[in-house]
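User: Predict the structure for this protein chain, please.
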Amino acid sequence: MTNGAIDLLQQLIRNACVNDGTPESGHEHRSVATLQEFFGVEGQVFEPAPGRQSLVYRVKGEDPEAPALGLVPHLDVVPVDPAGWSVDPFAAEIIDGMVYGRGALDMLNVTAAMAVAARPYITGEKTPRGDLVFIAAADEEQGGVYGAKYLVDEHWDLVGVPYVLTEVAYPALSYAGKQTVPVSIGEKGGYWSILKARGRPGHGSVPYGQDNALRKIVDALKGIFDTPMPVGITPEWVEFVSRLQVDPDLQEKLTDPDRIDDAIDELAVTDPLFARYVHALTHMTISPNVLGAGRKVNMIPAEAEAMLDIRALPGMDRHFVESHLHKAMGHARDDVDIEPMAYDLEATVSRPDSLLWEAIARGVEDLEGHRNLLPTLMTVGTDARFWRARGSICYGVGLFDDRIGFSEMLALFHGHDERVSIDSVEKTTALYERVFEHFFWL
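Assistant: Here is the predicted structure, written as C-alpha coordinates:
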Protein backbone atom coordinates (compact mmCIF):
# COMPACT_ATOMS: atom_id res chain seq x y z
CA MET A 1 0.00 0.00 0.00
CA THR A 2 1.25 3.40 -0.92
CA ASN A 3 0.55 5.17 2.37
CA GLY A 4 1.20 2.43 4.93
CA ALA A 5 -2.24 2.80 6.50
CA ILE A 6 -3.40 -0.69 5.52
CA ASP A 7 -0.35 -2.43 6.99
CA LEU A 8 -0.81 -0.45 10.19
CA LEU A 9 -4.54 -1.19 10.32
CA GLN A 10 -3.87 -4.90 9.97
CA GLN A 11 -1.36 -4.87 12.81
CA LEU A 12 -3.71 -2.93 15.08
CA ILE A 13 -6.47 -5.49 14.42
CA ARG A 14 -4.09 -8.37 15.10
CA ASN A 15 -3.11 -6.85 18.44
CA ALA A 16 -6.61 -7.81 19.65
CA CYS A 17 -6.96 -5.06 22.25
CA VAL A 18 -10.34 -6.41 23.37
CA ASN A 19 -12.06 -4.38 26.07
CA ASP A 20 -14.65 -6.51 27.86
CA GLY A 21 -15.29 -3.91 30.53
CA THR A 22 -12.93 -5.31 33.15
CA PRO A 23 -9.80 -3.43 34.27
CA GLU A 24 -7.64 -6.40 33.24
CA SER A 25 -8.81 -6.36 29.62
CA GLY A 26 -7.90 -3.99 26.79
CA HIS A 27 -4.15 -4.66 26.64
CA GLU A 28 -3.73 -1.43 24.72
CA HIS A 29 0.02 -1.57 25.48
CA ARG A 30 0.28 -3.83 22.41
CA SER A 31 -0.91 -1.13 20.04
CA VAL A 32 1.06 1.59 21.84
CA ALA A 33 4.19 -0.42 20.99
CA THR A 34 3.00 -0.79 17.39
CA LEU A 35 2.52 2.98 17.03
CA GLN A 36 5.85 3.78 18.66
CA GLU A 37 7.54 1.53 16.13
CA PHE A 38 5.52 3.07 13.30
CA PHE A 39 6.51 6.63 14.23
CA GLY A 40 10.02 5.82 15.36
CA VAL A 41 9.45 8.25 18.21
CA GLU A 42 8.79 7.19 21.81
CA GLY A 43 6.16 9.76 22.76
CA GLN A 44 4.62 9.93 26.23
CA VAL A 45 2.96 6.82 27.60
CA PHE A 46 0.32 6.91 30.35
CA GLU A 47 -0.74 3.74 32.17
CA PRO A 48 -3.27 4.32 34.98
CA ALA A 49 -3.79 0.54 35.25
CA PRO A 50 -1.53 -2.34 34.15
CA GLY A 51 -1.59 -2.69 30.36
CA ARG A 52 -4.10 0.15 29.91
CA GLN A 53 -1.74 2.43 28.03
CA SER A 54 -2.43 5.59 26.04
CA LEU A 55 0.17 7.29 23.83
CA VAL A 56 0.49 11.06 23.36
CA TYR A 57 2.62 13.15 21.00
CA ARG A 58 2.41 16.93 21.27
CA VAL A 59 4.17 18.56 18.33
CA LYS A 60 4.96 22.22 18.95
CA GLY A 61 3.83 24.59 16.22
CA GLU A 62 5.68 27.51 14.67
CA ASP A 63 3.29 30.06 16.14
CA PRO A 64 2.46 29.73 19.87
CA GLU A 65 -0.63 31.90 19.29
CA ALA A 66 -2.04 29.66 16.54
CA PRO A 67 -4.85 27.22 17.49
CA ALA A 68 -3.92 23.64 18.28
CA LEU A 69 -5.52 20.57 16.72
CA GLY A 70 -6.00 17.29 18.59
CA LEU A 71 -6.37 13.88 17.00
CA VAL A 72 -8.09 11.36 19.30
CA PRO A 73 -8.27 7.83 17.94
CA HIS A 74 -8.75 4.92 20.33
CA LEU A 75 -6.94 1.60 20.50
CA ASP A 76 -9.42 -0.79 22.12
CA VAL A 77 -12.13 -2.84 20.45
CA VAL A 78 -15.25 -4.63 21.67
CA PRO A 79 -15.47 -8.41 22.16
CA VAL A 80 -16.52 -10.76 19.38
CA ASP A 81 -18.54 -13.92 18.95
CA PRO A 82 -16.26 -15.84 16.56
CA ALA A 83 -19.10 -18.20 15.64
CA GLY A 84 -20.85 -15.36 13.82
CA TRP A 85 -17.85 -14.48 11.67
CA SER A 86 -16.92 -15.98 8.31
CA VAL A 87 -13.22 -15.25 9.00
CA ASP A 88 -10.92 -15.04 12.00
CA PRO A 89 -11.89 -11.67 13.55
CA PHE A 90 -8.28 -10.92 14.48
CA ALA A 91 -6.45 -12.20 11.40
CA ALA A 92 -7.00 -8.91 9.48
CA GLU A 93 -7.45 -10.76 6.22
CA ILE A 94 -7.84 -8.83 2.97
CA ILE A 95 -10.61 -10.33 0.84
CA ASP A 96 -11.73 -8.67 -2.37
CA GLY A 97 -10.21 -5.35 -1.38
CA MET A 98 -11.79 -5.36 2.10
CA VAL A 99 -9.91 -5.56 5.40
CA TYR A 100 -11.85 -7.81 7.80
CA GLY A 101 -11.45 -7.69 11.55
CA ARG A 102 -12.78 -6.42 14.84
CA GLY A 103 -12.12 -2.68 14.91
CA ALA A 104 -11.86 -2.29 11.15
CA LEU A 105 -14.62 0.35 11.34
CA ASP A 106 -14.63 1.16 15.05
CA MET A 107 -12.21 2.78 14.87
CA LEU A 108 -8.85 1.32 13.90
CA ASN A 109 -9.32 2.45 10.30
CA VAL A 110 -9.38 6.03 11.55
CA THR A 111 -6.54 5.36 13.99
CA ALA A 112 -4.36 4.12 11.13
CA ALA A 113 -5.36 6.96 8.78
CA MET A 114 -4.68 9.61 11.44
CA ALA A 115 -1.31 8.05 12.27
CA VAL A 116 -0.19 8.09 8.64
CA ALA A 117 -1.36 11.67 8.11
CA ALA A 118 0.28 12.83 11.37
CA ARG A 119 3.57 10.98 10.92
CA PRO A 120 5.40 13.75 8.98
CA TYR A 121 4.63 16.13 11.85
CA ILE A 122 5.55 13.70 14.61
CA THR A 123 8.87 12.80 12.96
CA GLY A 124 9.75 16.45 12.34
CA GLU A 125 9.50 16.30 8.56
CA LYS A 126 6.78 18.97 8.71
CA THR A 127 6.07 21.66 11.27
CA PRO A 128 2.47 22.74 11.93
CA ARG A 129 1.62 26.38 12.50
CA GLY A 130 -0.13 25.54 15.77
CA ASP A 131 0.41 22.51 18.01
CA LEU A 132 -0.65 19.11 16.67
CA VAL A 133 -1.51 16.62 19.41
CA PHE A 134 -1.91 12.92 18.61
CA ILE A 135 -3.68 11.04 21.44
CA ALA A 136 -4.07 7.28 20.98
CA ALA A 137 -6.40 6.47 23.86
CA ALA A 138 -7.20 3.33 25.81
CA ASP A 139 -10.60 2.27 27.13
CA GLU A 140 -12.93 4.24 24.85
CA GLU A 141 -15.28 1.27 24.62
CA GLN A 142 -15.91 1.32 28.38
CA GLY A 143 -16.20 5.04 29.04
CA GLY A 144 -12.58 6.17 28.96
CA VAL A 145 -11.80 5.77 32.68
CA TYR A 146 -8.32 4.42 31.83
CA GLY A 147 -7.95 6.52 28.70
CA ALA A 148 -9.40 9.82 27.54
CA LYS A 149 -11.19 10.69 30.77
CA TYR A 150 -8.02 10.06 32.74
CA LEU A 151 -5.92 12.15 30.34
CA VAL A 152 -8.34 15.08 30.30
CA ASP A 153 -8.77 15.03 34.08
CA GLU A 154 -5.11 14.55 34.98
CA HIS A 155 -3.06 15.89 32.05
CA TRP A 156 -5.05 18.71 30.49
CA ASP A 157 -1.87 20.75 30.12
CA LEU A 158 -0.69 18.14 27.61
CA VAL A 159 -3.90 17.09 25.85
CA GLY A 160 -5.88 20.33 26.02
CA VAL A 161 -6.72 21.73 22.58
CA PRO A 162 -9.49 23.94 21.20
CA TYR A 163 -10.21 21.62 18.24
CA VAL A 164 -10.42 17.83 18.03
CA LEU A 165 -10.81 15.29 15.23
CA THR A 166 -12.01 11.86 16.36
CA GLU A 167 -14.81 9.43 15.48
CA VAL A 168 -17.28 8.63 14.03
CA ALA A 169 -16.45 8.63 10.33
CA TYR A 170 -19.51 7.74 8.23
CA PRO A 171 -19.90 6.94 4.52
CA ALA A 172 -21.57 9.48 2.26
CA LEU A 173 -25.33 9.86 2.47
CA SER A 174 -27.29 10.70 -0.66
CA TYR A 175 -30.83 12.00 -0.86
CA ALA A 176 -32.63 13.80 -3.68
CA GLY A 177 -29.64 13.16 -5.91
CA LYS A 178 -27.30 15.16 -3.69
CA GLN A 179 -24.21 13.58 -2.17
CA THR A 180 -23.32 14.68 1.36
CA VAL A 181 -20.43 13.86 3.70
CA PRO A 182 -21.65 13.31 7.27
CA VAL A 183 -19.62 15.07 9.96
CA SER A 184 -20.23 13.97 13.54
CA ILE A 185 -20.86 17.07 15.64
CA GLY A 186 -22.28 15.57 18.82
CA GLU A 187 -23.53 12.51 20.60
CA LYS A 188 -26.34 11.32 22.81
CA GLY A 189 -25.80 11.01 26.54
CA GLY A 190 -25.14 7.67 28.20
CA TYR A 191 -26.99 6.71 31.37
CA TRP A 192 -26.13 3.04 31.79
CA SER A 193 -28.15 1.66 34.69
CA ILE A 194 -28.75 -1.54 36.62
CA LEU A 195 -32.14 -2.70 37.82
CA LYS A 196 -31.80 -4.78 40.99
CA ALA A 197 -34.40 -6.88 42.78
CA ARG A 198 -34.30 -9.03 45.87
CA GLY A 199 -36.47 -11.98 46.84
CA ARG A 200 -36.12 -15.11 48.94
CA PRO A 201 -34.39 -18.32 47.91
CA GLY A 202 -36.44 -21.46 47.66
CA HIS A 203 -36.76 -24.78 45.87
CA GLY A 204 -37.64 -24.52 42.19
CA SER A 205 -40.00 -27.49 42.36
CA VAL A 206 -42.54 -25.51 44.41
CA PRO A 207 -42.69 -22.04 42.81
CA TYR A 208 -46.24 -21.15 43.89
CA GLY A 209 -46.24 -18.09 46.14
CA GLN A 210 -42.46 -17.87 46.19
CA ASP A 211 -40.67 -14.49 46.25
CA ASN A 212 -38.76 -14.85 42.98
CA ALA A 213 -36.38 -11.93 42.32
CA LEU A 214 -36.24 -12.70 38.61
CA ARG A 215 -40.01 -12.33 38.29
CA LYS A 216 -39.70 -8.78 39.65
CA ILE A 217 -37.07 -7.90 37.06
CA VAL A 218 -39.13 -9.46 34.27
CA ASP A 219 -42.20 -7.44 35.31
CA ALA A 220 -40.12 -4.25 35.31
CA LEU A 221 -38.66 -5.04 31.89
CA LYS A 222 -42.09 -5.79 30.45
CA GLY A 223 -43.20 -2.31 31.42
CA ILE A 224 -40.09 -0.77 29.84
CA PHE A 225 -40.56 -2.73 26.60
CA ASP A 226 -44.27 -1.90 26.39
CA THR A 227 -43.90 1.86 27.01
CA PRO A 228 -43.07 4.11 24.02
CA MET A 229 -39.71 5.83 24.25
CA PRO A 230 -39.77 9.62 24.84
CA VAL A 231 -39.49 11.66 21.62
CA GLY A 232 -37.10 14.57 21.24
CA ILE A 233 -36.85 16.71 18.09
CA THR A 234 -33.57 18.55 18.61
CA PRO A 235 -32.26 21.53 16.60
CA GLU A 236 -29.47 19.22 15.37
CA TRP A 237 -32.04 16.77 14.00
CA VAL A 238 -34.02 19.53 12.27
CA GLU A 239 -30.81 20.76 10.62
CA PHE A 240 -29.89 17.20 9.58
CA VAL A 241 -33.27 16.67 7.92
CA SER A 242 -33.26 20.06 6.19
CA ARG A 243 -29.89 19.36 4.57
CA LEU A 244 -31.02 15.96 3.29
CA GLN A 245 -33.53 17.71 1.02
CA VAL A 246 -36.09 14.94 1.34
CA ASP A 247 -39.68 15.14 0.11
CA PRO A 248 -41.44 18.07 1.90
CA ASP A 249 -44.17 15.83 3.34
CA LEU A 250 -41.58 13.39 4.73
CA GLN A 251 -39.54 16.29 6.09
CA GLU A 252 -42.60 17.55 7.97
CA LYS A 253 -43.19 14.12 9.47
CA LEU A 254 -39.54 13.68 10.42
CA THR A 255 -39.55 16.90 12.43
CA ASP A 256 -43.02 16.56 14.00
CA PRO A 257 -42.92 14.80 17.39
CA ASP A 258 -46.49 13.60 16.86
CA ARG A 259 -45.75 12.04 13.45
CA ILE A 260 -42.11 10.97 13.70
CA ASP A 261 -43.03 7.37 14.50
CA ASP A 262 -45.19 7.19 11.35
CA ALA A 263 -42.25 8.48 9.32
CA ILE A 264 -39.95 5.86 10.84
CA ASP A 265 -42.45 3.11 9.98
CA GLU A 266 -42.47 4.37 6.38
CA LEU A 267 -38.68 4.41 6.17
CA ALA A 268 -38.46 0.92 7.65
CA VAL A 269 -40.22 -0.53 4.60
CA THR A 270 -37.38 0.42 2.25
CA ASP A 271 -34.40 0.96 4.59
CA PRO A 272 -34.85 -0.66 8.01
CA LEU A 273 -31.27 0.11 9.09
CA PHE A 274 -31.66 3.82 8.40
CA ALA A 275 -35.06 3.76 10.14
CA ARG A 276 -33.34 2.35 13.22
CA TYR A 277 -30.85 5.24 13.10
CA VAL A 278 -33.63 7.82 12.71
CA HIS A 279 -35.48 6.32 15.68
CA ALA A 280 -32.38 6.55 17.86
CA LEU A 281 -31.77 10.20 16.93
CA THR A 282 -35.32 11.23 17.76
CA HIS A 283 -35.96 9.19 20.92
CA MET A 284 -34.42 8.34 24.21
CA THR A 285 -33.61 4.64 23.86
CA ILE A 286 -33.41 1.86 26.43
CA SER A 287 -31.91 -1.48 25.51
CA PRO A 288 -31.79 -4.17 28.25
CA ASN A 289 -28.70 -6.10 27.20
CA VAL A 290 -27.55 -8.15 30.20
CA LEU A 291 -29.77 -10.20 32.53
CA GLY A 292 -28.52 -12.08 35.57
CA ALA A 293 -30.16 -14.21 38.23
CA GLY A 294 -29.55 -17.44 40.10
CA ARG A 295 -26.75 -19.98 39.95
CA LYS A 296 -28.62 -23.29 39.87
CA VAL A 297 -31.59 -24.47 37.86
CA ASN A 298 -33.55 -25.84 40.83
CA MET A 299 -33.09 -22.79 43.09
CA ILE A 300 -35.42 -19.77 43.08
CA PRO A 301 -33.11 -16.75 42.83
CA ALA A 302 -32.91 -14.37 45.75
CA GLU A 303 -31.27 -11.70 43.61
CA ALA A 304 -31.69 -10.60 40.01
CA GLU A 305 -30.51 -7.73 37.90
CA ALA A 306 -30.74 -6.28 34.42
CA MET A 307 -28.25 -3.92 32.79
CA LEU A 308 -29.77 -1.20 30.63
CA ASP A 309 -28.00 0.72 27.88
CA ILE A 310 -29.83 4.06 28.03
CA ARG A 311 -29.06 6.82 25.51
CA ALA A 312 -30.61 10.25 26.01
CA LEU A 313 -30.89 13.25 23.70
CA PRO A 314 -29.62 16.73 24.55
CA GLY A 315 -31.80 18.18 27.33
CA MET A 316 -32.54 14.79 28.91
CA ASP A 317 -30.70 14.23 32.20
CA ARG A 318 -30.57 11.50 34.86
CA HIS A 319 -33.74 12.83 36.50
CA PHE A 320 -35.57 12.63 33.16
CA VAL A 321 -34.30 9.10 32.57
CA GLU A 322 -35.32 7.75 35.97
CA SER A 323 -38.70 9.48 35.85
CA HIS A 324 -39.43 7.63 32.61
CA LEU A 325 -38.22 4.32 34.08
CA HIS A 326 -40.47 4.70 37.13
CA LYS A 327 -43.46 5.49 34.95
CA ALA A 328 -42.75 2.62 32.56
CA MET A 329 -42.25 0.02 35.28
CA GLY A 330 -45.56 0.84 36.96
CA HIS A 331 -46.19 -1.13 40.14
CA ALA A 332 -43.03 -3.17 39.51
CA ARG A 333 -40.96 -0.11 40.46
CA ASP A 334 -41.80 -0.77 44.12
CA ASP A 335 -39.76 -4.00 43.96
CA VAL A 336 -36.82 -2.73 41.89
CA ASP A 337 -33.91 -0.39 42.61
CA ILE A 338 -32.26 1.68 39.88
CA GLU A 339 -28.51 2.22 40.17
CA PRO A 340 -26.15 4.03 37.79
CA MET A 341 -23.52 1.62 36.44
CA ALA A 342 -20.83 4.32 36.26
CA TYR A 343 -20.65 8.07 35.89
CA ASP A 344 -23.35 9.61 33.71
CA LEU A 345 -22.39 11.02 30.33
CA GLU A 346 -24.40 14.03 29.23
CA ALA A 347 -25.15 14.62 25.57
CA THR A 348 -22.63 16.97 23.96
CA VAL A 349 -22.74 18.99 20.74
CA SER A 350 -20.28 21.20 18.83
CA ARG A 351 -21.49 23.91 16.48
CA PRO A 352 -21.01 23.18 12.74
CA ASP A 353 -19.30 26.50 12.08
CA SER A 354 -15.64 26.87 12.99
CA LEU A 355 -12.08 26.94 11.70
CA LEU A 356 -11.97 23.14 11.73
CA TRP A 357 -15.33 22.89 9.96
CA GLU A 358 -14.00 25.09 7.14
CA ALA A 359 -10.82 23.02 6.95
CA ILE A 360 -12.90 19.84 6.59
CA ALA A 361 -15.07 21.47 3.91
CA ARG A 362 -12.00 22.48 1.92
CA GLY A 363 -10.48 19.02 2.28
CA VAL A 364 -13.68 17.36 1.06
CA GLU A 365 -13.83 19.81 -1.85
CA ASP A 366 -10.23 18.97 -2.82
CA LEU A 367 -11.02 15.27 -3.06
CA GLU A 368 -14.72 15.03 -3.87
CA GLY A 369 -15.38 18.21 -5.83
CA HIS A 370 -18.06 19.51 -3.44
CA ARG A 371 -18.31 20.79 0.12
CA ASN A 372 -21.69 19.38 1.12
CA LEU A 373 -21.16 18.58 4.77
CA LEU A 374 -23.99 17.04 6.80
CA PRO A 375 -23.89 17.85 10.55
CA THR A 376 -24.72 14.57 12.28
CA LEU A 377 -25.59 13.70 15.87
CA MET A 378 -24.31 10.27 16.87
CA THR A 379 -26.26 7.58 18.66
CA VAL A 380 -23.05 6.27 20.22
CA GLY A 381 -20.70 7.78 22.79
CA THR A 382 -17.11 8.75 22.01
CA ASP A 383 -14.10 10.29 23.72
CA ALA A 384 -15.06 13.65 22.21
CA ARG A 385 -17.39 14.31 25.16
CA PHE A 386 -14.46 14.85 27.51
CA TRP A 387 -13.00 17.60 25.34
CA ARG A 388 -16.41 19.16 24.64
CA ALA A 389 -16.98 19.38 28.38
CA ARG A 390 -13.88 21.59 28.48
CA GLY A 391 -15.13 23.78 25.64
CA SER A 392 -13.34 22.14 22.70
CA ILE A 393 -14.97 21.85 19.28
CA CYS A 394 -14.96 18.19 18.20
CA TYR A 395 -15.87 16.51 14.93
CA GLY A 396 -15.62 13.08 13.34
CA VAL A 397 -15.28 12.64 9.58
CA GLY A 398 -13.90 10.32 6.91
CA LEU A 399 -14.27 9.49 3.23
CA PHE A 400 -15.45 6.14 1.91
CA ASP A 401 -15.98 4.49 -1.42
CA ASP A 402 -19.44 3.17 -2.28
CA ARG A 403 -18.86 -0.46 -1.34
CA ILE A 404 -20.42 -0.03 2.11
CA GLY A 405 -23.27 2.44 2.43
CA PHE A 406 -24.37 4.49 5.41
CA SER A 407 -27.02 2.03 6.59
CA GLU A 408 -24.85 -1.06 6.16
CA MET A 409 -22.05 0.55 8.13
CA LEU A 410 -24.42 1.12 11.04
CA ALA A 411 -25.05 -2.64 11.14
CA LEU A 412 -21.34 -3.50 11.01
CA PHE A 413 -20.48 -1.43 14.10
CA HIS A 414 -19.88 -4.02 16.85
CA GLY A 415 -21.32 -6.61 14.45
CA HIS A 416 -20.14 -9.75 12.69
CA ASP A 417 -17.68 -9.57 9.76
CA GLU A 418 -16.75 -5.95 10.50
CA ARG A 419 -14.77 -4.68 7.52
CA VAL A 420 -13.62 -1.63 5.60
CA SER A 421 -12.37 -1.22 2.05
CA ILE A 422 -8.75 -0.43 1.29
CA ASP A 423 -9.87 2.50 -0.86
CA SER A 424 -11.87 3.97 2.03
CA VAL A 425 -8.88 3.92 4.37
CA GLU A 426 -6.72 5.58 1.75
CA LYS A 427 -9.36 8.21 0.98
CA THR A 428 -9.71 9.00 4.68
CA THR A 429 -5.94 9.29 5.02
CA ALA A 430 -5.83 11.72 2.11
CA LEU A 431 -8.65 13.75 3.65
CA TYR A 432 -6.80 14.11 6.96
CA GLU A 433 -3.63 15.22 5.18
CA ARG A 434 -5.55 18.00 3.47
CA VAL A 435 -7.52 18.95 6.58
CA PHE A 436 -4.29 19.43 8.51
CA GLU A 437 -2.89 21.66 5.79
CA HIS A 438 -6.04 23.76 5.57
CA PHE A 439 -6.43 23.99 9.35
CA PHE A 440 -2.90 25.18 9.99
CA TRP A 441 -2.56 27.46 6.97
CA LEU A 442 -6.05 28.93 6.43
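The chain has two domains: 5-174+348-441, 189-340.
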